[in-house]
Specification:
Layout: H1 25-35, E1 42-46, H2 53-66, E2 71-75, H3 84-87, E3 93-97, H4 106-122, E4 125-128, H5 141-147, E5 151-154, H6 160-173, H7 180-190, H8 194-211, H9 217-229
Helix pairs in contact: 1-2, 4-5, 6-7, 6-8, 7-9
Length: about 230
C-alpha cells in the first residue's frame, strides 16, 4: 500500500490494559476476545464522544499484533478511496472508526456492505460510530440490515474517580507518574473529556521536562495559568 495514510495510523499509546472500563466492562471483554481471535464476530461500538471508542479499536489492534495476528486500524475518511477496504480483506482484525461518516456516500456504503457481509461470517471486525446501526442514516438498506447483526455496545462515560484512574494509566503509558491528588486536581480544573485531559498531560509533561520538575499540583497550576495567558 506504499506510505500508510494518516487514517490508517494507530493513535498513540492506547492499549486494552489501559482502558478503564467502568460500566463498559462487557464491551471491553468482547473486544478483547475478538482481538485475540477467540470469537468470530463483529462488534459495533457507539456512544458519546470521549467514551473510549477509538481507544478500544486501537488497543485491540495492538493486542492482535502482539498475538501474531495481522490487524489494521482505519479512521473512515470519505476523501479516501473505499476500494482500500478490499486491500484489507486478508487482515485478521479490521478496526473501522467513524463509520457514521459513510452515511449518504453510496461508494462507501457499498464497500462497507461487502466488508460487513464477509466479516459477519469470518469475524475479526470492530466498528466505532457516533450512532448505532439504525441511526446512522445509511441509504443502502442492506448495509443497515447487515450492521444490525453485529453485537452493539453503547459506551457510557466514566465518573470522576474512574477518569482519575484513566488519567493515571495514560501517564504510565507515557513513562510519567502523576499521583491521584494531582490527577483529581487536573480533572477539576480542565474538564472531564479524557481526550482533552491527555492533551493537558502532554503539555504538563513538556513543561515539567523543561523545568526538570515532577508532575505535582503546583506544576499543574502553573501550566494552566500559562495556558490562560496565551
Amino acid at each position: 500500500m506504499g506510505q500508510i495514510p494518516l487514517a490508517l495510523r494507530l493513535p498513540r499509546h492506547p492499549s486494552l490494559d489501559s482502558y478503564v472500563a467502568g460500566a463498559n466492562a462487557a464491551a471491553l471483554e468482547h473486544v478483547r476476545a475478538v482481538a485475540a481471535g477467540g470469537r468470530a464476530e463483529a462488534v459495533w461500538l457507539t456512544g458519546p464522544a470521549a467514551t473510549g471508542k477509538t481507544h478500544l479499536l486501537a488497543g485491540a489492534c495492538r493486542a492482535a499484533s502482539d498475538a501474531g495476528l495481522r490487524s489494521m486500524y482505519v479512521a473512515l475518511d470519505p476523501a479516501l478511496d473505499p476500494a482500500m477496504l478490499r486491500e484489507l480483506e486478508t487482515v485478521e482484525l479490521l478496526a473501522l472508526d467513524d463509520v457514521h461518516c459513510a452515511a449518504g456516500r453510496p461508494d462507501w456504503e457499498r464497500a462497507l456492505f461487502v466488508t460487513l457481509d464477509a466479516r459477519l461470517q469470518s469475524g475479526g471486525l470492530l466498528i466505532a460510530a457516533d450512532l448505532g446501526p439504525r441511526d446512522c442514516g445509511f441509504g443502502l438498506p442492506d448495509l443497515e440490515s447487515r450492521a444490525t447483526a453485529a453485537a452493539v455496545y453503547r459506551l457510557a462515560a466514566l465518573n470522576d474517580e474512574e477518569l482519575a484512574v484513566a488519567l493515571t494509566l495514560q501517564a504510565v503509558q507515557r513513562g510519567l507518574r502523576i499521583d491521584e491528588p494531582a490527577a483529581s486536581f487536573l480533572l477539576q480544573r480542565v474538564g472531564r473529556d479524557l481526550t482533552e485531559l491527555t492533551q493537558w498531560l502532554d503539555r504538563i509533561d513538556r513543561f515539567g521536562l523543561a523545568s526538570q520538575r515532577p508532575i505535582t499540583i503546583p506544576l499543574i497550576r502553573e501550566v494552566i495559568a500559562a495556558a490562560s495567558r496565551e
